[in-house]
C-alpha cells in the first residue's frame, strides 16, 4: 500500500502547491528525450514512410525507457532506502499532476484582464495555449483560458489519476503483486501525452513523425476524457442544486451530447462541451496558429458573454472535481485495507 499512499500524498500536494520551475521536473526530462530522438531521426530519415517509422520508434523508446525508469524507482530505490524511495515517489507524483500549476497560470491571465492590461493578458495566455494571441480581445482571451483549463482537466489531472487508480485496482486484485503499476502507468501516460504535445501536430513538419504519438494519445485519453466529463457533470449537478437552478445542469448535458465530437480529436471536446453548456456560451471557433487561420466549428448553443470572473468559477469547479476524485481514492483505499 506504500505506493498508493505516495500517489495520494502527491495528489493532495498538487491540490495546494504549484510546480517549482527552479527544480528539475519529470516532464522536462521527458521532453528532452523526445527532442533528442526527434533531432537524431530527422537526420537519418527523410521520406514520409521513414518519418512515420521514426515516429513509431520515438514512441516505443520513450514508453520503454520511462516505464522502466519508473519501475526502477519503485523497486530498486525502495530497496536502497525505504524513506528515500517514498519521498521521491511522492515528489514525482506531485509533478505528474497539474491542477495547482494550471490554476496559477490561468489566474495570471485573470489578474491581467482585471487590471485592463491587454498586452500582459495576451502574453500570459500565450504561455498556456498554442494559438496566436496577438490580436485577441479580452473576451476571446477569457474563452481561450476557459477552453484550456477545461481540456487540461483531463490531460493534466484526471488521466494520470485514472491510470494511477487503475494500477491500484490491479494491484489490489493481484494481492499487491503488481503494486508498481500504480506509479508506472501514470508515468507512461505522461510520456505519451508529452509526445503528443511536442510532435503530435498535423502541420507539414510533424504530420508524419508525430502521427504515432497523436494516435496513441487519442487511445490512452479515450476513457479518461469521458470520465472527466462525467465528473464535471456530477459537480455541475451539485452546483445547480445548491443554486436551485437546474437549467445550468440541463445546458451542460445538452451541450455535452451535442458537441462532444466537434473537435478533430475524439477526446478534447468531451470536457469543453460540458463547460460551454455550463457557461451557456460558445467556445472554440476559428483561430490563428503560427500566422495561419485554422477553421473550427464552435462548441455550445448559448450566447452569453464570458467575463474574467468565469475563470475563477471554472477553477473552483475543477477543484470540486478534484475532491470527487480524492473521495473515490479514499473509498478504494478503504476497500483495500478491508480486503488485505
How confident is the prediction overall: mean pLDDT?
Answer: 90
**CA-based gyration radius:** 20 Å
The sequence of SSEs as H and E is: HHHHHHHHHHHHEEEEH
Taking the sheet with the most strands, its summary is: 2 strands, antiparallel
Count of helical stretches = 13
Low-confidence stretches: none
Shape: globular
Q: Strand arrangement, largest sheet?
A: 1-4
Helix share of residues? over 70%
N-to-C span: 10 Å
- Work out the number of β strands: 4
Structural class: mainly alpha
So what's the oligomer here?
single chain
Strand percentage lies at under 5%
What does this structure look like?
The protein is mainly alpha-helical. The protein has one domain. Helices cover 73% and strands 3% of the residues. It has 13 helices and four strands. The chain has helices at 2-16, 26-44, 48-80, 82-96, 99-114, 118-126, 138-173, 181-199, 211-220, 222-242, 246-259, 268-278, 309-339; strands spanning 283-284, 287-289, 292-294, 298-299. It has a two-stranded antiparallel ribbon. Strands 2-3 form a two-stranded antiparallel ribbon. Strand 2 and strand 3 form a beta hairpin. The model has no long low-confidence stretch (mean pLDDT 90).
Amino acid at each position: 500500500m506504500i505506493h498508493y499512499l505516495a500517489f495520494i500524498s502527491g495528489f493532495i500536494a498538487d491540490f495546494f502547491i504549484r510546480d517549482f520551475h527552479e527544480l528539475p521536473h519529470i516532464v522536462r526530462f521527458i521532453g528532452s528525450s523526445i527532442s533528442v530522438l526527434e533531432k537524431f531521426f530527422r537526420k537519418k530519415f527523410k521520406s514520409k514512410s521513414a518519418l512515420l517509422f521514426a515516429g513509431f520508434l520515438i514512441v516505443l523508446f520513450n514508453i520503454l525507457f520511462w516505464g522502466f525508469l519508473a519501475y526502477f524507482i519503485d523497486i530498486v530505490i525502495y530497496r536502497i532506502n525505504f524513506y528515500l524511495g517514498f519521498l521521491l515517489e511522492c515528489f514525482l507524483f506531485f509533478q505528474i499532476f497539474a491542477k495547482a500549476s494550471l490554476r496559477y497560470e490561468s489566474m495570471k491571465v485573470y489578474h491581467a484582464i482585471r487590471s485592463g492590461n491587454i498586452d500582459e493578458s495576451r502574453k500570459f495566455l500565450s504561455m498556456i495555449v498554442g494559438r496566436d494571441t496577438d490580436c485577441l480581445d479580452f473576451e476571446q482571451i477569457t474563452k481561450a483560458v476557459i477552453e484550456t483549463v477545461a481540456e487540461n482537466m483531463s490531460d493534466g489531472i484526471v488521466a494520470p489519476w485514472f491510470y494511477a487508480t487503475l494500477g491500484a485496482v490491479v494491484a489490489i486484485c493481484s494481492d499487491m503483486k503488481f503494486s508498481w503499476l500504480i506509479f508506472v502507468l501514470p508515468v507512461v501516460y505522461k510520456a505519451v501525452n508529452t509526445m503528443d504535445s511536442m510532435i503530435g501536430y498535423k502541420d507539414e513538419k510533424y504530420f508524419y513523425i508525430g502521427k504515432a504519438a497523436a494516435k496513441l494519445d487519442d487511445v490512452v485519453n479515450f476513457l479518461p476524457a469521458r470520465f472527466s466529463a462525467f465528473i464535471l457533470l456530477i459537480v455541475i449537478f451539485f452546483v445547480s442544486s445548491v443554486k436551485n437552478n437546474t437549467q445550468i445542469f440541463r445546458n451542460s448535458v445538452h451541450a455535452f451530447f451535442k458537441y462532444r465530437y466537434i473537435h478533430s480529436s475524439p477526446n478534447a471536446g468531451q470536457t469543453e462541451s460540458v463547460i460551454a453548456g455550463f457557461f451557456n456560451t460558445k467556445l472554440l471557433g476559428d483561430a490563428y496558429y503560427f500566422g495561419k487561420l485554422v477553421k473550427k466549428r464552435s462548441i455550445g448553443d448559448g450566447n452569453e458573454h464570458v467575463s474574467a470572473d468565469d475563470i475563477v468559477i471554472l477553477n473552483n469547479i475543477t477543484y470540486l472535481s478534484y475532491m470527487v476524485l480524492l473521495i473515490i481514492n479514499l473509498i478504494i483505499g478503504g476497500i483495500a485495507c478491508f480486503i488485505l
